[in-house]
Design brief:
Two copies of one chain form a homodimer. With 263 residues, chain A is of the alpha/beta class. In chain A, the strands form three sheets. In chain A, strands 1, 4, 10, 11 and 12 form a five-stranded mixed β-sheet that branches. In chain A, strands 3-2-7-8-9 form a five-stranded mixed β-sheet, with no helix packed on it. In chain A, strands 5-6 form a two-stranded antiparallel sheet. At the A-B interface, helix 1, helix 2, helix 3 and helix 4 of A face helix 1, helix 2, helix 3 and helix 4 of B.
Chain lengths: 263, 263
């Protein structure tokens, strides 16, 4: 609190906040709390767009361990997604273009990690998560949990995700508008990768050709988290299908240590 | 925003805020917004207890003008209080000990300001404003507006105010408890003094013998805003009464300039 209050006072003195600006800030913060409920957390969104979430995440993780980099959890994760066998199709509504996602989980010495859990979720080809369109999209659409095999491999079929805007109808939207800041998150897949004895990784893989990569409003992009959504590539695996138009490889490295990144 | 975000990041890095602490802060800010409504503004209270309100006020006012110092408006002001003639009794419920409040309004050259408006409000002898106890206390209890006479004088009868706790049943109360900070505001009278051609003064006068003077949770006390609540002093004025046990002198100086301190 001492540090927070000191820096808050320094900022106010630096720009000589006026009483009218102060009142605007009070109103903004109040609206940010009042629009939040158990399905929407506008203060987390504010933290995201101010780069606070990424900063806290960076401070919490040892970036020298060799593990896959973390990025923001985001507001759309839902716990206890269905467990599927590798190769399963997580499209509960068949829209967009099918994409095969496959990869391996290894430790920092390059050894496969068998039995690792991958919790995956993403937006659809229109940029919507199931929870945003409960009337149109089946519950658990484009969500699932997978377990790596004895070689540390996993794979599944999904829909190629689209970039999408963060919620802009609240105070955070007003703030970004006032600052002329963009709203569009580049296309990505979410992953939480866990395995006994390893530090969890909460991250995304981004479409490295997405035109919005450089303007992520929540500042979540890291160069190590880019992957190519390859068109029409022959693939071998448990989910071959002529109708699968894209392939994305998403590999992960876990570091030893059982620490919970949320603690 | 650039300054605010830079200082916010500096504070987070300085103390290495953990994800759990970050989540605690998100929850705290959300609750602070959600408990606020048109009768309670918890973010203003938060600003008050962090010294932000006083800092913004200090930056907004020329403290070298010779005018009476400002202090926090507080959450209990109600606009359009009844207008009374000088000497009137603003106790709509007869509780506590009567106090005669009198003084003059002058300009920075010492000349009386006739026709100045004084908007006054205060807590009662139990520490409550009318708006806090709408079932027990009449509306406009211990509130009123007065106009200075040709000599710049005003006076009225009121109830000697008691110190009182700031609201402690919300997130700000939890914060002060966690920091072992006191809750009690020292006894005071509120004034807004306005006159055409002068900068308004929003201030308090504090009981200079109140034991809580040094621990004002909103940091509103200034040495120039202390006055003595004198017992049993003979007074001359329009409101003589043997039943008036106390006298408080509250003088004001206005500086030229029509600027609105709230702008």
């Amino acid at each position: 609190m001492e540090s927070m209050v000191r820096h808050l006072h320094e900022a106010i003195k630096e720009v000589r906040i006026t009483p009218a600006e102060w009142m605007e800030a009070i109103t903004f913060l109040t609206r940010t709390g009042q629009i939040s409920d158990n399905k929407r957390q506008e203060f987390i969104l504010l933290s995201d767009v101010l780069g606070v979430s990424m900063l806290v995440d960076t401070l919490a993780h040892d970036t020298t361990s060799g593990a896959t980099a973390n990025t923001v959890l985001g507001p759309f994760h839902v716990s206890d997604a269905p467990h599927y066998a590798n190769g399963a199709d997580i499209r509960l509504k068949q829209t967009g273009e099918a994409m095969w996602v496959a990869g391996g989980v290894r430790d920092t010495e390059g050894r496969p990690v068998a039995g690792a859990n991958l919790d995956v979720w993403q937006a659809d080809d229109s940029g919507f998560y199931d929870v945003q369109r409960p009337n149109d999209l089946p519950e658990w659409n484009l969500r699932g949990q997978f377990t790596t095999d004895g070689n540390g491999h996993y794979d599944f079929i999904t829909s190629k995700p689209l970039h999408y805007p963060i919620p802009s109808d609240g105070p955070v939207g007003d703030l970004l508008n006032a600052l002329d800041r963009p709203f569009i998150r580049p296309a990505h897949l979410h992953f939480i990768v866990t395995a006994d004895g390893y530090a969890p990784v909460i991250t995304h893989y981004f479409d490295d050709r997405c035109p919005y990569l450089q303007y992520d409003p929540v500042l979540g992009v890291k160069s190590s988290l880019l992957t190519r959504f390859e068109p029409n590539v022959e693939h071998s695996g448990s989910a071959k299908s002529d109708s699968v138009k894209w392939t994305a490889r998403c590999d992960f490295v876990l570091a030893r240590g059982g620490d919970d990144p949320s603690a």
